[in-house]
Amino acid sequence: MGYLALYRQWRPQTFREIVGQEHVTKTLQNALVAKRISHAYLFCGPRGTGKTSTAKVLAKAVNCQERTEGEPCNRCFMCKRITEGSSMDVIEIDAASNRGIDEIRDLREKVKFAPTEGKYKVYIVDEVHMLTTEAFNALLKTLEEPPAHVIFILATTEPHKIPLTILSRCQRFDFHRVSNQLIMDQVSRIVKAYQIEITPEALNLIARAASGGLRDALSILDQCMAFCSNKIEEEDVAELIGSAGESFLFALVDTIIQQRPGEALKLLDEVLQKGKDPRLLLWDLLEHLRNLLVTKVSQNPSALIISTEEMMTKIREQAEKFSLTQLFELIDVFRQYEAEIKWSNQPRLLVELAIIKGIKNVGEVEGAVSTSPKIKSSPGKGVESNSGIKENPQTLTFAEIKQRWPEVLEVVRKTKITVYAFLIEGKVQELKGNTVLVGFNQDCTFHKEKLEEKENRELIEKVLYRVFGRNLTLQCITINSDKPQRESKKSSEDDQLVQKALELFGGSLVEIKD
């Protein structure tokens, strides 16, 4: 026989060998011990989490002649036949290519026949959600009352596409994504068996790239073993999966906090010249920022980030350079572009825009407002905030505030629409020093009170800094409504018209009462 892929060589042969699905294997073992075997099972979950492998182990267990505590022996005739894939009583069906009603009708005819070798005839239907509606309807009656010697095991990655009438007739088991730590442990065991050395950083990168799918991890490892021979390092794994690697991410994020857009774009260009995928770079960058955020807020970040101790030290050091609000701003910017890049024909441009906008927002908004106290500036002198950006030394006038107020409203609208709805009811009244006075009519007291809340007021002050480049304070005031004034003016004008009419035509005023 030719070479078998690692995920086939290391396919679990017992319930004990299935990784990360104890809630499924324990339930099935207990059911086997208690002889409470169902006629239909539904295994659903992400790809590469062990659905088909569990189905084959269950098929062996129900037919095993020497079963112990629910585990197949893997020594008897039936276990060997099923492991080799030569048993006539275990039928695997790919629903993606056998999805029509004719195939299901043929299956209905065959289930009537008794098993030829074992006690049960087991049908494993993979990707069952691909069946047509007519095929599901044809399967319904057989699935509800199958012959006593038949067990159906349906596997799918999309259970929401299966009709409720089918779901209600099956015992459902949800397979979870395998944790990074369990994937790393399994990969370590395999490379040890092949006497191949692998670095902790490479292990971590393989686990992250697998996204909870053990089969994906073993496929990546298979490539690495062919590429690296005796030692697998992080750079080798990054080269194969298209990732830029941790060193690039640390360097890029450093240029962002230091506000060096030119150097950041140069780093990006060097990586893209090596053929890296811009979409994957953005995804990696978001994950790196998530690690920084977790480190910033958690007492024990090592429990939430799967990484080496050396890498955790570097993450902690870089996290200290950021404030929480700076990280919020960066994550928000990259998240927006990450959603857009999937459909873009120019992914590189979007990554560059994300980096430049991230640097701009961190420097202009979060760095100055959230990490430092208010700074009083004297006329004619520029004030430098903690973010390294100097305020505009020119005197800010009320006329400029009034002229650019629509710009302030637009930024607030894009940031938080509810705050915009309150602020739009106000009108800029005056600039007193570094305080912007916004007036509200007496019937807008609710709007004024909402804007005076700390969270909303700070948001507007951040926007003011972003638009005008200096620390400004917002103050909301109540002003008299101009409605009585307008009515008085209108009344005065009416009186003048009446007097003019009396002069021209003569006569006198008469009061008419209803």
From TrEMBL:
Q: Which GO terms describe its molecular function?
A: ATP binding; DNA binding; DNA-directed DNA polymerase activity; metal ion binding
Keywords linked to the UniProt accession = ATP-binding, DNA replication, DNA-directed DNA polymerase, Metal-binding, Nucleotide-binding, Nucleotidyltransferase, Transferase, Zinc
User: What enzyme class is recorded for this protein?
Assistant: transferase
Coiled-coil zones: none
Stated EC number for the protein is 2.7.7.7
Every AAA+ ATPase domain range: 37-188
Q: Show which residues constitute the signal peptide.
A: none
UniProt key word Ribosomal protein: no
Organism whose genome encodes this protein: Calderihabitans maritimus
Annotated segments matching region Disordered: 370-389
GO annotation (BP), single: DNA-templated DNA replication
What is the name of this protein? DNA-directed DNA polymerase
Please indicate if the UniProt record lists Zinc as a keyword: yes
Family, according to the entry, reads as follows: Belongs to the DnaX/STICHEL family.
Give me the reactions it catalyses: DNA(n) + a 2'-deoxyribonucleoside 5'-triphosphate = DNA(n+1) + diphosphate
Pull one GO CC term from this UniProt entry: DNA polymerase III complex
